[in-house]
Structure formats: structure tokens, C-alpha cells
Amino acid sequence: MSAGDLLSDRLRDRGFRVTMQRRAVFDAVVALGHGTPESILRKAQEVDATLNLSTVYRNLEVLEDIDLVRHAHLGHGSPTYHVAHEHRHLHLVCSVCNSIVEVPVETADSLVELLADRHQFAVDIDHFAIQGRCAQCR
Amino acid sequence: MSAGDLLSDRLRDRGFRVTMQRRAVFDAVVALGHGTPESILRKAQEVDATLNLSTVYRNLEVLEDIDLVRHAHLGHGSPTYHVAHEHRHLHLVCSVCNSIVEVPVETADSLVELLADRHQFAVDIDHFAIQGRCAQCR
DNA sequence: GTCTATGCAAAGTTTTTGCACCTGG
DNA sequence: CCAGGTGCAAAAACTTTGCATAGAC
Asked: What is the pTM (predicted TM-score) of this model?
């Protein structure tokens, strides 16, 4: 039967129900690439205008739980959510102009290896942004 | 007259006034090594029990402005403040047990160089923590 | 039909702001 | 004095929670 899309399969496998709200939240994350809970709400409300912010928070937690979504901290404000395994990159945040540049995660391979070797620490390198000053502002 | 301590000098140089609250906040940061606004308040209140949280926030901002204090993001919660130029190290935060390990900033030198060369980005490498899984939890 | 998920409203947390009073220079 | 700093209270921003109802299976 059903071709079974990734979202439905993953939800059901883990005992979660497939609801239109979950689909709307996931689709919003996909569409945005990156989004805060607030921006994800606004995007998802294009599909379902009655969708509630608390539903967004609850579903982002579920989507992270089933490894479809991840979040990163890019600054002082709300965390940013993105699709897991897509858009894997470091975020360079400029402390002067707040611009964000994305660079390949491989850029940090040597650091990742060092931390593994010296400290047996398995780095999730893109969870936090890297702050500094960009080419224009330095 | 006054030997002129660092705090007074730096404040006056930049046109800020020297108040006992500023001294208490700065002393608390020094004493704690690392502290959230809340923990800094508690520490500073040992000296001045009437000190207010909003004064702590305002003065941490001033102290950062005059480069005596810096803050880092170690997780989802409040930022952590520390004395500038002291305690320079990376924070490895375990996503499982939340333990924090400090490692020398030099560990990331190769990443810092790469970002400077390739992206003309001047990294403030210890502003954000590095998340991952520690030796025990991996 | 059962049990999870949702909407709504309220509360919790953390940080910021307005304002009258206080104080350093 | 007087501009800047402080305490207090209120507001703002962000996130979580309780509960009655709706909806997935």
C-alpha cells in the first residue's frame, strides 16, 4: 500500500501519530532551510492558519526525537531548526554586522580529529555557531 | 593618590562612573571564574545585599563594553560571563550528561587559520561552546 | 473506543525598559 | 549641582504546561 513518505514512516516506526500539523511543521522546516520556532509557525500557517505556536514547539521536539530535524544555536536568540543531514555546514556569525556565512563542515575536520584523539570527544561541530568578524567588518 | 586599579581606570577612560555596584559585579565575575547573570547576582549580593538583577545585566554590558568581561554561550540557557583574557579555553559540552570539559584554545588553531585564509573571518573561537558526546557517553 | 495530539490560556523563565530617586565627579 | 546610575516594578520575549476537546488508528 502507501508509498510511505519518510515523515509518516519515521513517525509510525516510533509510535507517533501522523497529523497534518506535524506535516505542516516539517514542510515548513524543509521550505525554510533554517528557521526559528516563530518563523516556522508563520510558514506553516500558510497551510494551516489555526496552527498554534505550542504545537510547533511540541512537534519540533518530536521531529528532533525521530532524527528528521536538528537545531543549532546561532546567537543570543531562539535556536534555529533545520532538516537533519541536509544543510550540514558551519555558521560563521559576525559579531559586528550579524551576517551569517555558511562553510562546509569539513573545514573543521582537523579540530574534530584532535578532539577525538586527545579527549575522546565526539564533536557535533555544527551545533553551535562560530563567532568572529567577517571580511567586511574586521 | 589612588594607585588606580584596572576597573576604575578603564571605566573612567571610557567616561563611565565608578560605582560600588560595578565593583561588586566585576569582583563577582572574578571570584566565580564563570557565571550566569543569576549566579553573579548571588555572589555580588554577598557584598551588597540590595543589588538588583537589572543592575547586574546593565553592568555586565558595560564591563563587556570596556573589554574587562566577555560572555560565551555554553548551552540553551543563559550566557556565561568571565573575565576577559583569563580562562581562555574551549568548552566541550556533552549533549548526553551535560558535563563541561575545558581544553586549550590552541586546539582549534588549525580551524582558526583555515577560516582566516579561506574566508577572511577572524574567529572568536571560544564564544560558543562545542557540543558533542564525552568519553563516557559516546 | 481509546489514547495521543491540538488549541487555548495561563504560567514560568530570562532579559529589557521606564521612571523616580540617588550619587559620583 | 547635574548627568549618569540604581532600584523597583512593569513589560517584553521566549518557552512550557494544564486541561478540555478533537482526531488518528
From this structure: 0.89
